[in-house]
Amino acid sequence: MSDNRIPVAVLGATGNVGQRFIQLLENHPWFRVAELVASERSAGKKFSEATVWRLGNDMPESVRDLVVQDYSADLQSALAFSGLPSEVAGEIETRLAANGLAVVSNTATHRIEPDVPLIIPEVNPEHLAAIKTQQENRGWKGFITTNSNCSVMHLVLTLKPLQDAFGLNKVMVTTLQAVSGAGYPGVPSLDMIDNVVPYIGSEEEKMETEAMKMLGGYDGGFQTADFVLSAHCNRVPVRDGHTECVSLELGAQPSPAEVIEAFEAFRALPQELELPSAPKRPVVVRYEDNRPQPQLDRDTERGMASVVGRVRPCPVLGLKYVLLGHNTIRGAAGAGILNAELLKAKGYLNA
Ligand code: NAP
User: Fold this and answer.
1) Looking at the structure, do residues 15 and 117 belong to the same domain, yes or no?
2) Identified catalytic residue from 28, 110, 150, 233
3) In which domain, by residue range, is 130 found?
4) Residues 203 and 182 in one domain
5) Does one domain contain both 41 and 79?
6) CA distance 300 to 328
7) Is the peptide bond before 60 cis (omega within 30 degrees of 0)?
8) Inside any domain, residue 176
9) Closest listed residue to residue 35, CA positions, set 3, 12, 58, 4
10) Which of 247, 299, 329, 333 lies at a 20 to 30 A Cα distance from 13?
């Protein structure tokens, strides 16, 4: 592989999302992992000594000997992917952006700020225009872009074709979220086995506000989408893959067949640009009565698609369906990488 690839840093490299970044960036055609950052616990150690690798296959050879840096390091890379906990991300990401880096963040900290794009490339690529305002407002050479919370990511990916075709009025969503969404070690096993936990801190609020930002337009500022959304979020004993049961009232009254047609026809800018991580089909429809299921469907389109099924009438709101999406791939690291590919394709990366 040619090494004109852009050197990138991974922040929170030893964690769930950080390891996914490293796995997905192995052999990436445009980006090469050059720097790794984690907490003081890991700093100064080789990545292979600091990390218990929790994903399939081996830790990529190319990162084994990289020495983990701590949060105060002056990074040389032009681009940083962040999988930092929100308590520490604010300060670290701000410093790096001020120093000229493009920071592509998974963390909630900056998502709702009025000059920070919260991007799904298939949904709201026009929000990237806020980068210029952000740099002017803050006097930064670099910038921060964010991707959404893992459950709202998949919900919004499926709502977008419906919003475009029929309009959205009301959305009710109940999630069944995988344990890996809580980081490692996450929820204690004795709280999780044989159980469902009907609360995930701040998750319902994130779903409700982030969806409105991403599905609203941009006219020099972010507009709030004009529909209402209510979320119930539950943690269930599944390793990877969030399931969501959605009921909604659309502006028009399409049949389930017309809704399925809108899902299947959905293609957007990442598919047009053939970005390396873009799924060929962002929304994949399953027709079996008992799909999608996490075990069977979370890796559809390399974990980058939202899989929908059971599209049917709802006697309360008009229409309902079930969706499933991989939470650490399209819901986190894969989303960040697709955002960075869009930034490169649109000329936002100086490297
Ligand atoms: P995690 O497994 O707990 O990993 C946290 C990482 O941050 C570790 O690498 C840890 O390093 C590092 N870290 C902790 N404190 C630090 C500090 N002071 N300075 C530098 N590095 C520090 O968490 P995660 O699940 O990967 O989540 C990371 C972020 O992504 C969170 O903001 C989360 O909300 C978001 N997110 C997660 C998911 C998901 O499905 N898991 C989805 C979307 C978004 P050490 O190993 O050295 O402690």
Assistant:
1) yes
2) 150
3) 6-149+333-345
4) yes
5) yes
6) 13
7) no
8) yes
9) 12
10) 299
Cβ–ligand 1 contact at 106 (below 6 Å) = yes
Q: Is residue 1 part of a domain?
A: no
Q: Which one of 10, 11, 16 would you pick to mutate in the ligand 1 pocket, going by the greatest count of ligand atoms within 8 A of its CB? A: 16
Q: Which of 48, 49, 84 to mutate to test the pocket of ligand 1 (most atoms within 8 A of CB)?
A: 84
144 within some domain: yes
119 and 255 share one domain: no
* Candidates 110, 127, 154, 242; catalytic one: 242
Name residues whose C-beta falls within 8 Å of residue 317's C-beta, 6 or more positions apart in sequence: 170, 172, 247, 248, 249
Strand order in the sheet with 306-314: 228-235, 168-177, 242-250, 318-325, 306-314, 283-285
Based on the fold, state whether residues 92 and 166 are members of the same structural domain.
no
User: Given this model, what pLDDT does residue 3 score?
Assistant: 83
- Quote the distance between the C-alpha of residue 156 and its chain's center: 11
Per cent of the chain over pLDDT 90 is 95
Q: Do 278 and 216 lie in a common domain? A: yes
To the query of whether residue 245 is one of the catalytic residues in this protein, the response is no
Question: Which single residue is written with the structure tokens 């999406």?
Answer: 325
CB 343 within 8 A of CB 349: yes
Q: Please determine, for residue 57, whether its predicted confidence score (pLDDT) is greater than 90.
A: no
182 and 248 belong to one structural domain: yes
- With beta carbons less than 8 A apart as the criterion, state whether 322 and 101 touch: no
Q: Quick check: is 242 catalytic?
A: yes
Examine the domain organization and report whether 114 and 175 are in the same domain. no
